[in-house]
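[step 3/7] fold_predict: job queued, chain A
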Amino acid sequence: MMFHGWSIALSVCSLGTLFLGLLAVLCGVRVLMYWDHGSDTPLQIRLESEIWLTSALIQYGLFFQLLSLLLLVIAADTFSSLLVGAMCATGAFLANDYGIPALLVKIVMVFFCGFWLLLHRLDLQSEAYPLVRVKYWYLLLLVPLLAVDGALQSAYLFLLEPDVITSCCGVVFKPDTGNGFNLLDPYSTPFLLTLFYALAIFLLLTGLLFYRQLQKYNKRFRSILCGLYAWGWVIFFPVSIWAITIFFSSYIYAMPSHRCPFDILQYEYGYVGYPIYLSLFSATFLGTGCGIAALVRRYAGLATPVSAFQAVALPMSLALLLIFLLITSYAPLLYIVAGGEV
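[step 4/7] structure written:
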């Protein structure tokens, strides 16, 4: 499969991301070795210019990472027509041991690259550039993860064999009758929905309380609320993916046996998956970003920029959460209101 058109596109994206990351590391190493904010030497001036270059490289790298994630899902859906037993992207990802890890690492890397850009934006809003060393140490950890991402993707594509029998989503996520296989245990649906909506309510209430505390002086209470809000999103994100797969998707498909987190991206279902995932990813990044920003609030000159970011990111994450809840809950509610017909 390495010479399939989608495989080539994915390889180009991964190589492009890794190449830009390595260039950024070269700049970062020089910054870590020679940075002296109080100096006005030609070397220091050149390093300050390279900070902007590094930011541009990471921005393009994040674009390639987002594109690579989307391409991987589309490619897996295309591969499903070439694999025995697969009917959608789920079967294609489960065709070997590297599909799911490659997908998960790509998702994680989207957030990690975004957090680096967030730290960079905050750093530039202080004349002292207090986060220079923090963000470039972070960059040195980020690039090896990009290499792992590329390695997992290459292993997945290289070991993908059309004649190996795999499973479709109807088999993978079917109810477990004692002798069957299911990936996420569909019989836990009541617990799943309770957890999903409880976390959503928790995020809404905590977010509103946190927003009210942004301009107040009770720093300890504000920090607690910020931590709870950020960690709430860390838990809510995988729970939401679980709920979409096991519960909400079957109502969107109007077929109880059809459970798949990928088919909702297709034309047949109005591309509803795109606003679902876009709102979830964006809200999760903004919500966890409030926590990341709070971690660097104590650095010189960052109290005001962090507050400004949280004042924008917090209500946006809450609004996107409501949009996500409305879109995902629409089909089940319509089923109930319409008396069993979606």
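[step 5/7] annotate
Residues 33 and 322 are 46 Å apart (CA to CA).
Residues 42-79 form the longest helix (38 residues).
exit 0
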